[in-house]
Amino acid sequence: MTDAALPIAPPRTGPTAWLRTNLFGSWRNTLISLGSFALLVWAVPPLLDWFLFESRWGDTPPAECRKAAGACWAFVHEKHRLILFGRYPFAEQWRPLVGMAILLGLIGASCYRPFWRRWLLAVWAVGIAVMAVLMWGGVFGLRFVETTLWGGLPLTFLLTTVGVGAAFPLGVVLALGRRSKLPIIRAVSIGYIELVRGVPLVSLLFMASFMFPLFMPSGVQINALIRAQVAIILFAGAYLAEVVRGGLQAVPRGQIEAAAALGMGYWLTMRKIVLPQAIRLVIPGIVNSFISTFKDTSLVAIVSLSDLMLSTRQAIADPLWRPFFVEGYVFIGAIYLVFCFLMSRYSQHLEVQLNTGRRR
Amino acid sequence: MPFWSNPAVRGGVYQVTVLAGVFALGAYLIDNTLDNLAARSIRSGFGFMAREAGFELGESLIPYEPSDSYARAYLAGFVNTMKVSFAGIVLCSILGLFVGIARLSKNWLVARLASFYVETLRNIPILLQLFFWYALIIEVLPPSLDAINLGPGVFLSKSGLLFPLPLHDPAHAWVGLAFLVGIPAAVFYGHWAKQRQNATGQQLPRLLPTVGLVLGPAIIVFLILGAPLTFEVPVFQRFRFVGGGELTPEFLALWLGLSIYTSAFVAEVVRAGILAVDWGQNEAAGALGLRRGLVLRLVVLPQALRVIIPPTTNQYLNLAKNSSLAVAVGYPDLTSVTNTSLNQTGQAVECIAVMMAVYLTLSLLISAGMNIYNRVVAIPDRR
Question: Which of A56, A322, B319, B359 has the fewest Cβ atoms within 10 angstroms?
């Protein structure tokens, strides 16, 4: 039998083979591909037209914008200071900008593993202090700015980082409590965790804005920002507790028994043996909690705190620019999307990285 | 060894301290609250629940008038919460199942589109999505006068979605009764067929008789009674539509927003569940000679569902809790009713306590059910 008698095998590599295996493998696959392709052809060009080709940029007046068939990015151009910084005094807005840059720099630096050292905590403390000074002012010749004027993206980032930062110790304590052998401590921890996880965040924010003032001795006022921040901490703490508990359960019993055999007490065992291993296991979960908290902070808009969400609504409320709400929502949607997407990618990357030692 | 090093003694001291701390905090807060309430001369207690509420609700499944009591308003709000949660759970399951399977498709384009859907929707806050849908409905859709006609008698406009509704007929009750009789009959048939298979090895058809037994009696009764079915079609009169069924813009925005957002998470759960079943299970079942449908029903699905159902229930719970964002679009759910009531009465503690208790009961009931389910389906003796 000669070679010529054999049918020519289809190529296994190259663009044709790729198309064959991924899009046109069978008649059903071909049909699905064509259907999806038709959907794209139907949807993408009009969207692109709206988004780009027919849109108005720069400082186009609103009347001009109404005539255009596409998006009016002039709205975002006009209102970007209000959307990003809320009602913070206009001339002082460099301060939240610098503060936010510091915060983002710290978040970025914390994503780099060689920096996971004790000094990073100190750097964070300094960074937060600098941000607080910048936001509040009142010292170093900076004008004092009340918290009621804080707003926009810096507020969103501040609520998130302070929220997760303060909720983490709470979460660790609650997780340890839930795994404790002491019945009362376990009951208190479980009660707290299930109570908070069983109700929506909105109800906690309501509680913070309507009930916290009643809880304080008469004459003591706590401002709205701190009340909402406390609600976020209490909420995130319960969820972080469950994340940490997952890590605690994954530490093999043998580790605890070995520590006991060496004569280590409960606190020493937890601090030196169990927690370091448990927390290392759940770092991706903590990053995910950070993402949800970042998204959840948008709910403070419901109790009238002008974070990114509410400041955008305030920008849209301008009757001149009212028709361009889609542009405003798309703009902040993109901000949330980019940040959350990057963080979730980082979390997935971390999961792979941290597991290299355990994978066989 | 000194007595304070005894773990039992230490444990006792810790517990007493924590308990005392919790009680002290509670007493302090209650004391302050009572002082503050007295200072603002607000009466405490749940007596206000029987008083007249005096506010309108945009929509309600149960009859409600502003002259009804606060308790009635709360009930109406709760029913509205259940309504949007239930509708949302149904829609998000369908979308999530579809997208989750699409993400695993061998077709590159479909898989990409599905992952674009998931990554975009789950990374944008639900509140923003709700605002977006609501604004889209009330700003972009035409007024009722130029409503978009989606099909016979179905109209979409700024004032919501209108659709034909079957007119009530006394015969419908009998049809419903026949339907209810069909279900136990089908269950009984299933048991009998299984026993027969166990005893004789003979396999009886399952699907067709089951469907026939459930739907058959209802259809027969319906036909015997002369197929009484007329639709009330919404008609535009003067300024607005009259007749037919209606979904308000608030409900539509909330329903779509919640379902689409949650479907992205459900899709991920479904994908993980399908991936969790080892491909070898498929091959082994095939090697035993099971048909494709039986492989799915007897081997793959039971294992995939064990992985899928608990996290899906969690997502359903999240959806129900997120429905509290109704307050942002003005849908009169439990949270909105609470908000209005506490602004009117000033009795923040009671109003919020009732709301939290309702959500908490709902959550605990569902998670208790989940735990029971987990115990039933857990693979016995797995370590």
Answer: A322
